[in-house]
Design goal:
Layout lengths: L5 E3 L5 H12 L5 E4 L10 E2 L6 E4 L8 E4 L14 E4 L5 E7 L5 E8 L12 E6 L2 E7 L7 E8 L4 E8 L6 E2 L1 E7 L10 E10 L18 E3 L4 E5 L14 H4 L1 E5 L6 E5 L12 E7 L13 E5 L2 E7 L7 E7 L9 E7 L11 E8 L8 H13 L22 E3 L10 E5 L6 E2 L13 E3 L4 E5 L3 H4 L5 E3 L4 E5 L10 E3 L5 E3 L10 H8 L5 H26 L17 E3 L1 H7 L6 E4 L4 E7 L2 E7 L8 H12 L9 E7 L2 E7 L21 H21 L14 E3 L5 E3 L29 H6 L4 H17 L13 H9 L4 H4 L10 H14 L10 H22 L20
Parallel strand pairs: 2-4, 15-16, 27-29, 28-30, 29-31, 30-32, 31-33, 32-34, 35-39
Antiparallel strand pairs: 1-23, 2-14, 3-4, 5-6, 6-13, 7-12, 8-11, 8-14, 9-10, 9-12, 11-15, 15-25, 17-18, 19-24, 20-23, 20-25, 21-22, 21-24, 26-27, 36-37, 37-38, 38-40, 39-40, 41-42
Helix pairs in contact: 5-6, 6-15, 9-11, 9-15, 11-14, 14-15
Bound molecules: 2-acetamido-2-deoxy-beta-D-glucopyranose (10 copies).
The site of one 2-acetamido-2-deoxy-beta-D-glucopyranose has 3 residues, from loops.
Length: 881
Amino acid sequence: MESSYLVLLLMLIATLAIIHIVQAQDQQGFISLDCGLSEKEQSPYIETSTGLNFSSDATFIQSGKTGENKANLASEFKKPYRTLRYFPDGKRNCYNLNVEKGLKYLIRTVFIYGNYDGHDTSPVFDLYLGPNKWATIDLGQRRNNTREDIFHIATSNLLKICLVKTGETTPLISAVELRPMPNDSYNTTSGSLRLYSCRYFKETESYLRYSADIYDRIWIPKLKKEWTLISTSSDLKISNSFPPPKDALKNAATPSNASVPLTLEWSPQSLSINTLDYYYLYVHFAEVQDLQANEIREFNLVWNGQHLEGPVTPPKLELLTVFSRLPPRTCNEGKCILQLISTNRSTHPPLINAYELYLAIQFPQSETDERDVNVIKSITASYALSRINWQGDPCFPQQLRWDGLNCTDADMSIPPRITSLNLSSSGLTGTIASAIQNLTQLEKLDLSNNNLTGEVPEFLGNMKSLLVINLSGNNLSGSLPQALQRKGLKLSVQGNPELCVSDSCRKPPKKNIFVPIVASVASAAIIVAMLVIYRLVKKKNSTILQNLTQRPSAPTGNTTFANKKSKRFKYSEVIKMTNNFQSVIGIGGFGKVYRGTVNSSEVAVKVLSQSSSQGYKEFKAEVELLVRVHHTNLVTLVGYCYEGDHLALIYEFLPNGDLQHHLPRRGGRSINNWSIRLRIALESAQGLEYLHIGCSPPMVHRDVKTANILLDENFKAKVADFGLSRSFKSGVECQESTVVAGTLGYLDPEYARSGQLSAKSDVYSFGVVLLEIITNQPVISQASEDAHIRDWVDSKLSRGDIIEIMDPNLGKDYDSNSAWRALEVAMSCADPSSSKRPSMSQVIHELKECIVLENSRVNNIQGLESQANISSSTSVRPMAR
Ligand SMILES: *[C@@H]1O[C@H](CO)[C@@H](O)[C@H](O)[C@H]1NC(C)=O
Ligand SMILES: *[C@@H]1O[C@H](CO)[C@@H](O)[C@H](O)[C@H]1NC(C)=O
Ligand SMILES: *[C@@H]1O[C@H](CO)[C@@H](O)[C@H](O)[C@H]1NC(C)=O
Ligand SMILES: *[C@@H]1O[C@H](CO)[C@@H](O)[C@H](O)[C@H]1NC(C)=O
Ligand SMILES: *[C@@H]1O[C@H](CO)[C@@H](O)[C@H](O)[C@H]1NC(C)=O
Ligand SMILES: *[C@@H]1O[C@H](CO)[C@@H](O)[C@H](O)[C@H]1NC(C)=O
Ligand SMILES: *[C@@H]1O[C@H](CO)[C@@H](O)[C@H](O)[C@H]1NC(C)=O
Ligand SMILES: *[C@@H]1O[C@H](CO)[C@@H](O)[C@H](O)[C@H]1NC(C)=O
Ligand SMILES: *[C@@H]1O[C@H](CO)[C@@H](O)[C@H](O)[C@H]1NC(C)=O
Ligand SMILES: *[C@@H]1O[C@H](CO)[C@@H](O)[C@H](O)[C@H]1NC(C)=O
């Protein structure tokens, strides 16, 4: 037999065996649980026939009820198996035993249904070791008793033996026994060894186990009528490190008729075993008869008719163990047959002293990462959580995954990690457990609707993996750590009456800068000084701000045309889509803009004046580039037309026109809500930020102005006309220099002077836009001496009254703190020196803070101070849409 091999275990190191014998005789490392035993009255006790120290299982399992068997039991199952624990509640109930990771153990579970419940119905259920199935326990098949023994190497320091309900019947267990084994015993190439049969040969009822067997294997006596027993009273020599008990080896079976083989048969199918499992056979021989010099006992081992090993001659009064790994599917029709057949020269029939037969069993699913298991245990303990199905491995088997958890499950051989923890409405009290920070792969954390108190801990903001945090509906207090402002993190904290979510109490406290400003009656001198200080502080903080907001918003492309390929239209199509240029909706720097329809979607068709000096190739290259730029705050280019003299660009249509028209100086359809104005500013800033750092290659708009900020049906801002400045001069308001493009009043003076273009030029223009949004003053005043809007603000600033600066259309209905902060941002953007201007990312950060301030005021007014919903998506959209 090719795939089998033999190992003779004669020569194992004797000293090792001695060490183990000493340890084992102490019962060192033994765990002997008499399940269902009353903890107080009888535990622990010494079982008299074995000397084993049994104790109650009560401290190793948190669930189940105790019962007592009524029926008589077979002798080997008498004591300590009278009581039992059964599990009417929960699908999976588990014992947790402390073991040493990497050590090999004999793990034994005993199940005896002695009609404890009077129902006379034999239970059927599954047995698991951690995340892996070990066996199906069918007490109907072997009604009086079932025992499962396995040699298994512990994969963690906590062994979880679980009983899993699979039908209507109630799982039960009578005993759990654990015995440490020598590492080199019962080696397998892979997997653990599940016991099928372990026998010795004697005419008796009594089984052998501890202390006859130092490892407490259970040896059941066996005898057939066609066999004759031979035995010795002499001592045996044993140098095997895991030998059968000497008492077992002193007897041997031989066939009564010396001319027939000694035959052993098994039908392992009764174990419902995977037919691909390997068999592991250990046969123990020792000559117990006195043979004369001319006599010989010699035989071969034959497995299902095939030669397995031999010839073998058992040594006199000395143990010889034959070990063989037998491949699967070698047992015909479910029957495995081992024959010992004498050779021709043998003068005696074959003999056998003991044997063990095991099946290799694979446990492929890794246990959940031990660190995560420890954390979840610590969380369970700190909240005194008791959930019936939070037992066993948290992540596997998948159908028994702990409720409220989700885990990675890509590969069985990789320990799963916990990715989601949902403890909402779990009656949690106390503070947010610091152990949570050790769940380093956690993406979602839901602690909503509990009674958690204390502050929101800083560490939540530092957990890089977190995407969603829900802390709403608790009693949290204090303020939100700055770190929770991370982009890409969705944070919900509403329904915490004591929690301050406004910027003024955000950590680290910047509020000392703002406190005097809040008191808007303070003298002008103080305010001007504060503005100066603020800028200084901001400069110092600029790297931090940069880090917080570095990443531009991802392009969402939620418009009708987003992510579609650009389309080149024929001029005839342009005529058709605009219904022969019927409806003019604007006149821009490059030409007239008409309303049109493409595939029933509205579009804006910009017909370009034919002043372009470029050829078609360059134009096309540039348009192709623009078509690829998609951001929710940038107007989408749908297509273009280039046919002879006819050039046109087709954009998505934004029904609410441009921002300029919503800031009329006298009455009109003005947006008179500070919050909406801030949001429009923020969205425009996000569009610009994307152009500056989010798209490739980066772009400078060069013509940022209120007329180029368009508003969709929900008044969401989208920046228009970007990317074209290289091809087209911006027409009427252009500076004399042909290099410099831009609109008077919005044009960066430094760029105008030097011709050196940078993103900071857009920042300047944006500053002017923001000043318009705040003040609604003309960018260049015809009437005033202070011609530019910046100078106008400067002159008002010296008086220190925000009300005089703010657009009176807003009706003083704004948070002055928020207004001051926005004004500071605008003024620093519009600083004549480009080096003093912030980046768009910093601007975005500041505008978000403004919105938070304004929001908390609105909430206070509405008596909803307990309602604050901060999330990266909602905080920037305070208005319901
Ligand atoms: C049995 O084990 C327990 C601990 O499990 C120990 O306290 C007790 O002393 C032991 N009893 C004997 C007789 O060794
Ligand atoms: C058995 O294995 C464990 C873990 O690998 C190791 O700590 C221990 O020393 C080993 N014992 C023997 C006897 O080899
Ligand atoms: C169970 O044990 C009882 C008493 O020892 C015996 O009479 C009965 O035959 C056994 N039943 C089975 C199915 O082994
Ligand atoms: C069992 O495996 C260990 C490690 O793989 C090895 O050192 C030892 O010799 C093996 N023992 C036997 C009996 O094969
Ligand atoms: C022993 O077995 C052989 C072969 O099966 C048979 O011929 C013989 O009669 C048997 N002897 C006895 C005494 O049963
Ligand atoms: C054993 O005897 C059988 C028949 O009696 C014979 O076929 C076989 O060759 C013999 N084997 C040896 C090794 O002599
Ligand atoms: C758990 O996470 C997986 C991805 O790892 C996802 O497919 C699955 O829907 C999640 N299950 C639940 C209940 O959230
Ligand atoms: C947490 O569980 C609750 C109730 O089972 C559910 O409503 C909520 O959506 C879950 N939270 C997350 C983040 O999945
Ligand atoms: C969390 O991890 C730190 C560092 O690894 C460790 O000191 C601490 O004990 C862990 N806490 C818990 C509850 O696991
Ligand atoms: C929450 O905890 C506070 C303080 O311990 C207590 O007064 C309050 O009754 C608790 N509320 C609930 C719903 O348990």
